Amino acid sequence: MTQSQKSIVNLAAYPIADTKAPARAQTVERFRNELESRQYCVLPGFVLPEMCDQLVKEVRQRLPNAYGNNSRRNCYLQRQGDSTRPDDHPSNKLFDASYRMLAYDLFDEGSLLRSLYTWEPLRAFVADIVGAETLHLSEDPYQPANVLCYGPGDRSAWHFDSTSAFTMTLMLQAAEAGGDFMISPHTRNEAGQDDAGKLQKLRSVLDGDETHVVTVPREPGALVIFRGCTSVHCVSPVEGDTDRLMAVFVYEDEPGVIGDPEVNRTVYGPRTALAQ
Ligand SMILES: O=C(O)CCC(=O)C(=O)O
Ligand SMILES: [Fe+2]
């Protein structure tokens, strides 16, 4: 079934297609302010329920080809600690993560996932929320829109995202329990250097103190935009037999961006290196 790109998003709730509509401007303003003050914003019911179900079908068909990713890393995504720092420094706290990854190339041209990712009004809307002049599609074969699949016991450890100014995720299917997206806003500076206050906050989060941690409510269809480079975040272990399926969309500030092949190899598997 081919799908008009327009009919994927709940346009009654999120009037994003008409760039001149005052309702669009109000929607942008609201989420822009939320993102600014809290470092994340949630758009519940952004994708229509029947479209979400179809996206889940697309993902399930491809699950046998997902790459199983198990790693032990610190919150800066390094696999090794830093021996020049004290043992209790965040660099030396290593955490386990496990999930499966579906790369963009596994979804064909006519897929719903690609249709949504490439829909220009979505990109323009997100650019307005995050304050980017223009956002471009990623030209990487694997990264543009990918899906994280968390089975029973899978989780994502506390981490900062590496380069992008923002991260955008779409919940496709929730776990029966667990699989909570947790974030601690403002735990690192823009430049990636920690000042004393932020470092103290980060340490408390990594030690299990939830005072500065927010659990973001996510129903299927909810879009979340967050400042993952400056706000440490994780996904708690999934409980029950239902996979937690989360699509991640990558937009770039410049045209023609492709990812680091070494990163692709670790995230999407050795097949990406063989394809070069
Ligand atoms: O699965 C999630 O909700 C979070 C994913 C995440 O941390 C990321 O894409 O950077
Ligand atoms: Fe992340």
- Spell the H/E element sequence: HEHEEHHEEEEEEHEEEEEEHH
CATH T-level fold name: Jelly Rolls
Q: Give the end-to-end Cα distance, rounded to a whole number of Å.
A: 33 Å
Tally of contiguous helical segments: 7
The tally of domains stands at 1
Report the β-strand fraction as a percent range.
15-25%
Mean pLDDT: 94
- Helix share bin: 25-40%
Number of strands: 15
The CATH class is identified as Mainly Beta
* Poorly predicted runs: none
The CATH superfamily is q2cbj1_9rhob like domain
Q: Main sheet? A: 7 strands, antiparallel
Q: In angstroms, what is the radius of gyration?
A: 18 Å
Bound molecules: 2-oxoglutaric acid, fe (ii) ion
Description:
The protein has a single domain (about 10-75, about 85-250, about 260-270), classed as Jelly Rolls, CATH 2.60.120. The chain contains seven helices and 15 strands. It has helices at about 20-40, 50-60, 110-120, 120-130, 195-205, 260-270, 270-275; strands at about 40-45, 65-75, 95-100, 135, 145-150, 155-160, 165-175, 175-180, 180-185, 215, 225, 230-235, 240, 245-250, 250. Helix 1 packs across helix 4 (about 120-130). It is globular and about 55 Å long. The mean pLDDT is about 95. 2-oxoglutaric acid (AKG) binds next to strand 7, strand 12 and strand 14.
